[in-house]
Amino acid sequence: MSSYKSKRSRPKDPPNVAIENATKLLADKKKESAFNVLFETISYRHRAQFDQTYEKAMEKYIDIGCDILKSCKEGFLHYRSLVQQNHPQSLQKMINHLIKKVSEIGQREIVTLGGLEIASGEYESKALKYEWDSYQTILMILRNNGKLNNIYKKVVEKCISYCLSLSRSTEFKKLNDVIRRRFGYVINNQQFDYALKINSSETLNSMFEIRLKLLQCALDMSLHQESFKTIKDIQKNI
Fold first, then answer.
1. Whose CA is closest to 34, among 68, 83, 71?
2. CA angle (218, 220, 226) in 5-degree steps
3. Which of 38, 76, 170, 214 is close enough to 61 for a disulfide, judged by CB 3.0 to 4.6 Å?
4. Residue 218 and residue 102: Cα distance in Å, rounded?
């Protein structure tokens, strides 16, 4: 029992060592093990200070996750805790990297399936589901980050395009629910320095623009009930 405790309390490898170990595991075709090694170093909470080796470890973690279609959500939650307050530019860089990777995954899958018309009927596609789930992860990570609200808007637009091009009405309804819940979450979490400031004109205009895009998508998809809900949401913003 004591050996088990000592193993668990032993410090994880620093990022540069974890990257080396992950590279060796990849060479042995052990991708999931490499993914886990990087997660351990990203999630270890007792480091002295953030440095660029964390960013390199996170980037490799994302690359492997996208390669094996494994969610990067847990790693991003830890990385957000590490960098959100003092290094938001690093969080932005890693999120943009994930957006680029998963967008490429979705585009390749559509081509592989034979185009949008066929892909719109492929509800079991792991690659397309991974793209969608990754966007939802980003929306959750950034739901109350005022500094990166422009990235949040960008991902909402990606989600809208996904739903519209692939005729995904269920996902679109879920997206609307996510946006509605965000408003309440932001209101109840205004105490943080990085929080999205609900009373600023910039925030309100941003929310208004998002609602208009959702309304247009609902109309284009002939989802009348969602259209009415979104109109009510817009009225509340006004």
1. 68
2. 15
3. 38
4. 24
Q: Rg of the chain's alpha carbons, rounded to an integer?
A: 20
* % of the chain beyond a pLDDT of 90: 73
Nearest one of 201, 104, 100, 99 to 146, comparing CA atoms = 201
Element (H, E) at 146: none
For 149-202, how does the pLDDT look when each residue is reduced to its tens digit (9 = 90+)?
Answer: 999 999 999 999 999 999 999 999 999 999 999 988 888 888 888 888 888 888
Q: From the CB of residue 109, how many other CB atoms can be counted at a distance below 10 Å? A: 18
Amino acid at 227: S
Nearest residue to 140 (alpha-carbon basis) of 104, 188, 95: 95
Q: Helix 88-113 and helix 52-67: axis angle, to 10°? A: 20
Using one digit for the tens of pLDDT, what is the confidence trace for 44-65? 866 557 889 999 999 999 999 9
Q: What angle do CA 202, 237, 225 make, to 5 degrees?
A: 130
Across 220-235, average pLDDT: 93
CB of 141 closer than 8 Å to CB of 77:
yes
DSSP states of 29-85 as a string?
T-HHHHHHHHHHHHH-TT-S---HHHHHHHHHHHHHHHHTT---HHHHHHHHHHHTT
Coil/strand/helix, residue 86:
coil
- Which tokens belong to 143? 């739901």
Q: How many CB atoms lie within 10 A of CB 119?
A: 20
